[in-house]
Amino acid sequence: MPLHQLLTKQSFISGVLWLWLLVIFTAGVEAAPRGAGAAVQVRIATVDRKEIPHFTVVTGTVQAAEQAAIAAKISGTVVTMPVQLGSRVKKGDLLAKIHAEELTARLHQAEATLAQTRRILKREQTLLQKHATTPESAKTAAEQTAIAQAGYDEARAMAGYTRITAPFAGVVARKLLTSGDLTTPGAVLLHLENDQSLQIEVMISERLLHTIHPGDELTVLVETIPLTTTGIVIEIAPAVDPRSRSAVIKLAVPSNTALRSGQLSRVLVPDHEKYSLFVPKSALIQSGQMETVFVVADGQARLRIVRSGTQDDAMVEILAGLTRGEKVVTTSSSRLVDGQAVQVQP
Description:
Domain YknX-like C-terminal permuted SH3-like: 278-344
Number of strands: 24
Distance between the termini: 73 Å
Radius of gyration: 43 Å
Protein name: Efflux RND transporter periplasmic adaptor subunit
GO molecular function, one term: efflux transmembrane transporter activity
Mean pLDDT: 86
Domain CzcB-like barrel-sandwich hybrid: 67-185
Family: Belongs to the membrane fusion protein (MFP) (TC 8.A.1) family.
């Protein structure tokens, strides 16, 4: 091999070796502990144990606080039904009219009978004043008039059943019959709901009943809207269903135009107490998937791997890696390495 090629090759190998040594030296300098150097000024916080709320999520149903199944009290044909599904009505508005000829005829008969007994009573009273009849006869006429009056009142009430009106202001939630349909006593014509006053009905396990009291405020979630609101406990069933081992509670919720009767809701019910450790968020150092903190002990900062949980604007829950009462660094963490001498600022 020519001499100049040999020299060039040797120079290249020497350069690579020197570069490799430089990298090793530089890395060694960066990895060297600085504990022997000047102490770093830091602030610390104590690992504290706090109670955190723990909830069980139960499902509930949105329903109107005021609702009614409007049913017929007589037999007949529905001749008028001026409402539709979703119609909004006021108290006293006409919902349906039923045609029943026999009730009309009975009312006319009762009117005639009452008029007749009144004439007889008036005549008997006039004759009694003239001593032309006996007191017993006048008394009988009065009793017959009272009976006729009762019959007339009954017939008029029955005739009034042909008109069905709204018992309260609300909206027609279901409509089961239409004009021309035949109805019977007890047959439901429609369902009326007051959608301005809604509540949540929830079945609560007997295990959780002791945690709930009238007036308690519980968080309610309606995911389909979506909506997060607060419900106030207004009713708690006094007995537990032996089959489901649960009881009904009802919560009043604020009026919301997006809420509809029958919607699925979720209620957060307080469960057993839970305690956990907390440190300031500034103490937690995140490097990829690894979470660490610096713990101050004997004037040095010791790196500790931890596992965090829930957090808010100021504090973070520590699930593993720390014990209560330990001191963690909250400032100057970027200037520290494991074993670094520190001086705690007041």
